[in-house]
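Technical annex, item 7. During the second reporting period the consortium partners agreed on a shared format for inverse folding records so that results from different sites could be compared directly. Each record opens with the tokenized structure and is followed by the designed sequence. A conforming record, contributed by the partner at site C, is shown below for reference.
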């Protein structure tokens, strides 16, 4: 938890949240207003995160059109919750990235589709006859959260951290 709440990690998280330019959450706070809130209330927010009493705000539910004409449901967190989520994600990603296979390219830092294509071409030229591309429709809509939490507990056994993840 200390690493998540460390000043440099939070500064990187803020830069990423600002860069993402997300929509306003249920509280209508902008990323420009967030530093003002943090200057005034950060010690209390930090204490609540540390002691396990922090509760994320409700998300704003919206629907956006998909290319096929159907609608995708989104939950937009408040900018404060996005900051905390990003700070968590940075540490989790840092600690877990080494556990993935080298030829795994999806949603990983410093990896992209072009690298995946190059790897596929190399394996075909090396004599392998198959390349499998998998796009699981609505995968994140049906993730088994109990299984995910069990895996996180193995890597991050700190109860306040796991409780915070569960609340998000």
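Designed sequence (site C submission):
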């Amino acid at each position: 938890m200390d690493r998540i709440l460390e000043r440099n990690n939070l500064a990187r998280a803020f830069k990423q949240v600002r860069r993402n330019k997300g929509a306003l959450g249920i509280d209508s706070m902008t990323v420009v207003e967030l530093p003002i809130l943090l200057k005034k209330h950060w010690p209390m927010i930090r204490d609540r995160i540390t002691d396990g009493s922090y509760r994320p705000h409700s998300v704003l539910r919206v629907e956006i059109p998909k290319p096929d004409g159907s609608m995708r449901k989104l939950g937009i967190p408040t900018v404060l919750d996005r900051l905390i989520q990003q700070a968590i994600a940075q540490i989790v990603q840092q600690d877990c990235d080494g556990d993935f296979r080298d030829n795994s390219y999806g949603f990983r830092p410093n990896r992209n589709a072009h690298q995946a294509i190059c790897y596929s071409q190399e394996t075909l030229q090396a004599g392998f006859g198959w390349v499998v591309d998998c796009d699981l429709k609505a995968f994140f809509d049906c993730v088994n959260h109990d299984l995910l939490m069990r895996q996180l507990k193995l890597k991050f056994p700190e109860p306040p951290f796991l409780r915070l993840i569960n609340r998000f």
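The longest strand covers residues 60-65. DSSP finds six helices and two strands in the chain. All partners now use this format for quarterly exchanges.
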